[in-house]
């Protein structure tokens, strides 16, 4: 599918890293990110790296303990766990490694720091949807003055249309920040404006295999449907902010803290988990400016 933005037609910026080796941002990737607001890299993580990340997330009781759900009007639950400090375990090394943090520095054009990581958990059959929104619609309220921010979305499980894969509007980051209001417990972009943008830009279903990574700009409009399948859909998202965009107010995510980048090879040798999980600095959703209708998990709900 070609994307038409204004008078220009672009091919989807999808790049294959299945051959392994060092990963470097090419001029074509940089141009695509600036024009379309995203870059999709197939097999950014190989099967061993993906397996270690999955094992680490599944084995930590702290992830479940600190997770919370947002229930929609349809009764479905969108569950997530958010933390501020990357740490030295495999999820921390992933957030700090060159092919994640280094890629975001190149795409954003300056030094970045770890804004937060989150595990998005759409459980089989019951996982909820996320409304059309921009991440900067949230992060603007946290005192970030410029949209010099982005997210790296790593598929832990396969992401399909049936289990609620991400949907994006390529090029929508060029619209600037939209007004967001609280709807169904979520901050969603102004519906009428989104519909107008959808009449000009194509909706793209981001179908991903485990280990694929979507790098996208904080003003890119995106959403996701409910999980109507018998397959779980977990994804690990790492958000980055430029050092020059240090927030002007205290909030639930950190101000600038230097990020010590790690070699990609450490993903296969670092510890799976932190000896003390609390060093991850898990977020308390009650302190968020942009969340409502939050539910805490019980052991009986655990899938």
UniProtKB/TrEMBL annotation:
**Superkingdom of source:** Eukaryota
- Compositionally biased spans, kind Basic and acidic residues: 277-287
Which spans are transmembrane here? none
List the Pfam families hit by this protein, alphabetically.
PhyH
Q: Which cofactor does it need?
A: Fe cation
> What SUPFAM superfamilies does this protein's entry cite?
Clavaminate synthase-like
Region feature (Disordered): 273-303
Please state what the protein is called: L-proline trans-4-hydroxylase
Give the originating organism: Aplysia californica
């Amino acid at each position: 599918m070609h994307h038409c933005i204004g008078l220009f037609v672009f091919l989807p910026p999808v790049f294959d890293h299945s051959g392994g080796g060092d990963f470097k941002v090419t001029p074509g990737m940089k141009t695509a990110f600036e024009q379309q607001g995203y870059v999709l890299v197939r097999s950014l993580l190989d099967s061993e790296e993906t397996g270690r990340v999955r094992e680490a997330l599944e084995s930590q009781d702290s992830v479940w303990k600190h997770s919370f759900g947002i229930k929609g009007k349809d009764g479905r639950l969108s569950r997530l766990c958010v933390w501020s400090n990357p740490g030295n375990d495999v999820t921390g090394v992933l957030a700090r490694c060159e092919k994640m943090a280094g890629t975001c520095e190149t795409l954003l054009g300056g030094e970045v720091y770890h804004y937060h990581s989150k595990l998005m958990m759409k459980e089989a059959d019951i996982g909820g949807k996320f409304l059309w929104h921009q991440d900067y619609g949230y992060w603007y309220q946290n005192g970030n003055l410029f949209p010099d921010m982005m997210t790296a979305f790593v598929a832990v499980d396969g992401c399909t249309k049936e289990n609620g894969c991400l949907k994006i509007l390529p090029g929508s980051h060029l619209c600037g920040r939209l007004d967001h209001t609280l709807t169904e417990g979520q901050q969603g972009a102004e519906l009428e404006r989104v519909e107008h943008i959808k009449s000009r830009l194509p909706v793209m279903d981001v179908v991903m295999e485990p280990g694929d990574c979507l790098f996208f700009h904080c003003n890119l409009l995106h959403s996701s449907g409910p999980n109507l399948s018998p397959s779980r859909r977990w994804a690990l998202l790492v958000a980055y902010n430029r050092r020059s965009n240090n927030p002007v107010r205290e909030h639930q995510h950190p101000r600038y803290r230097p990020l010590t980048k790690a070699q990609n090879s450490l993903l296969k040798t670092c510890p799976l988990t932190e000896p003390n999980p609390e060093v991850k600095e898990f977020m308390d959703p009650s302190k968020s400016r942009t969340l409502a209708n939050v539910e805490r998990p019980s052991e009986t709900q655990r899938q």
